[in-house]
Each structure stands twice: as structure tokens, then as C-alpha cells.
């Protein structure tokens, strides 16, 4: 009986910390995933076609224009600019909007209702 009890104690020394670690991970992991989800935009559009010059400036760096290419993600707050002889098409899931040369658009809202609003005409 003493030998059996010693064996049980050795097994519990291993399993108890492992079970506590698993329980801690199970409690913390959902919060970490939820926090990551809260940082993501609700919907993301993409550059589906373009020719010429196309630039994007994110909301937090509105004067920091960078060239973008096909499939580049566009989200709420982004600014797009098409050069003089350029054109671009942005696919936002429920449709597309097209931009001609010398066009600047601020994506004010890209909602889950398959609408996109921009600052020029506020088409919603």
C-alpha cells in the first residue's frame, strides 16, 4: 500500500501542475483572441484593379502616401489617391467603386451592410 501511495504522489506531482497550466491557458487565451479581434476593422475592401499611379495613406498617417498594388487591403479611415492618367477599382464585398485620374477618396465608413461612404459625396 505504501508503494502504491508513493506512485500516486509522483503521478500527481506531474499532472497537477500540468492541469493548472492547461486551466490557466484556457482562461487567458479567449481574452487574447478577443483583444486581437477588437483591433481589426469590421470590413476590409481590396484594390481589385488599377492602372497608373495609386497611393494610400492610412488614417493615422494621413500625409504619408505610399504606392499600393492589386489586392492591397483598404479599411475605414484610409485615403486613396489616383494619379493624373490612372484609374482604380476597389472591391468592398457588396460591390465596387471606381476612381478616375486625379481622384482623392477618404473611406469614411466600410460597414457590414455592404455600403461604403466616402468624403466627396457621402454615398451611403
Class computed from helices, strands and strand pairing: alpha+beta
Q: Summarize the amount of helix as a percent range.
A: 25-40%
Number of strands: 9
Average pLDDT confidence is 75
Tell me the series of helices and strands, N- to C-terminal.
HEEEEEEEEE
- Tally of helical runs: 1
Beta-strand portion reads 25-35%
Shape: rod-shaped
Number of domains: 2
Strand order of the largest sheet: 3-2-5-8-9
Stretches where pLDDT is under 50 for at least 5 consecutive residues are: none
Rg is: 26 Å
- Our measurement of the CA-to-CA distance between the termini, rounded to an integer number of angstroms, reads 78 Å
Largest sheet: number of strands, sense, barrel closure:
5 strands, antiparallel
Descriptive account of the structure:
By secondary structure, the protein is of the alpha+beta class. It has two domains: 1-40; 45-118. 31% of the residues lie in helices and 31% in strands. The chain has one helix and nine strands; from the N terminus they run αβββββββββ. The protein has one helix at residues 2-39, and strands at residues 45-51, 54-57, 66-67, 73-74, 79-82, 87-91, 96-99, 103-110, 116-118.
Provide the descriptors you would attach to this structure in a database record.
single chain; 124 residues; alpha+beta; 2 domains; five-stranded antiparallel beta sheet; four-stranded antiparallel beta sheet; 1 helix; 9 strands
